[in-house]
Amino acid sequence: MKLINGKEISKSIKDEIKAEVEALKAAGKRLPKLVVVLVGDNQASQVYVRNKERGCQYTGMLSEIIRRDNNCTQEELLKIIDDLNHDDHVDGILVQLPLPKQIDEQAIIEAIDPTKDVDGFHPRNIAKLFLNEEGLVPCTPAGMMAMLDAIGYDLDGKEVCVVGRSNIVGKPVSLLALARNATVTIAHSHTKDLPKVTSRADVLIAAIGQPKFFTKEYIKEGAVVLDVGMDRDENNKLCGDVDFEDVKDKCHAITPVPGGVGPMTIALLLKNTMKAYKMRG
Ligand SMILES: Nc1nc2c(c(=O)[nH]1)N[C@@H](CN(C=O)c1ccc(C(=O)N[C@@H](CCC(=O)O)C(=O)O)cc1)CN2
């Protein structure tokens, strides 16, 4: 079994970005800037946002975090986004999800200038992904493709099963796999006989948010398993959707949690910020 090390792969992506930022600095150019908006006090979101800030610091990119409490209104947030859209020093805008219930997430996503939408969630960027056009691609799905590239795994003609149909992960990663000529199945909570469906897959992408759900009867011998889960086990320890210990000897390659897909999300966010900077000229 090959362990797909997200920490290592993400570091090499961050090092490439760092070199690009150093070249910009040496040329006396303006540096790329990411602004993250964090609303509320979700503990996990605080960690992810801190990691995003650290990622920017590592590469030398500029970053700013705008924090608002749980009572922030939709109007207040829309005003923040409008200001950032018009700020020429800002290349990337990211609103950390989830948002408090009084705020309509989709309205917020749609308010972000698509050229600064480094999450790749704006309908215009989703349309580009759908049409296989160049745009800003959601970070977690793009991170998984970068992991497959890093281990030299070609999706052409392979059976990929994505379990989970979220707008952030399941749907976009299915489109990316399709663009690489994979045969894609999207399974979800209404899928009948899930083990039969998943055990046909050369690549299983687990994105359902249920701790250690996927045991070895769900896995094809020699499969590649990408675990997007960020769950807590019975001892409150961080784990994925896949029962790593149970499946590891059946896989060709597998991502751990932590240290797998998560760090790739951050690296691809930095890559998108650099891309947005370059696109804006
Ligand atoms: N606006 C967005 N919100 C959210 C996204 C997103 O892509 N854009 N995705 C997730 C959370 N997320 C990024 O924001 C994210 C999740 C996990 C990690 C990560 O590095 N995880 C570590 C473990 C961290 C820990 O100790 O808890 C790992 O897997 O090794 C990075 C980013 C929802 N919201």
From TrEMBL:
The gene is folD. GO terms for biological process: L-histidine biosynthetic process; methionine biosynthetic process; purine nucleotide biosynthetic process; tetrahydrofolate interconversion. SUPFAM superfamilies: Aminoacid dehydrogenase-like, N-terminal domain (SSF53223), NAD(P)-binding Rossmann-fold domains (SSF51735). Residues 4-119 form the Tetrahydrofolate dehydrogenase/cyclohydrolase catalytic domain. One of its GO terms (molecular function) is methylenetetrahydrofolate dehydrogenase (NADP+) activity. Pfam families: THF_DHG_CYH (PF00763), THF_DHG_CYH_C (PF02882). Homodimer. Pathway: One-carbon metabolism; tetrahydrofolate interconversion. PROSITE patterns: THF_DHG_CYH_1, THF_DHG_CYH_2. Keywords: Amino-acid biosynthesis, Histidine biosynthesis, Hydrolase, Methionine biosynthesis, Multifunctional enzyme, NADP, One-carbon metabolism, Oxidoreductase, Purine biosynthesis. It catalyses: (6R)-5,10-methylene-5,6,7,8-tetrahydrofolate + NADP(+) = (6R)-5,10-methenyltetrahydrofolate + NADPH; (6R)-5,10-methenyltetrahydrofolate + H2O = (6R)-10-formyltetrahydrofolate + H(+). It comes from Intestinibaculum porci. Residues 138-279 form the Tetrahydrofolate dehydrogenase/cyclohydrolase NAD(P)-binding domain. It comes from the Bacteria. This is Bifunctional protein FolD. GO terms for cellular component: cytosol. NCBIfam families: PRK10792.1, PRK14186.1. Its EC number is 1.5.1.5, 3.5.4.9.
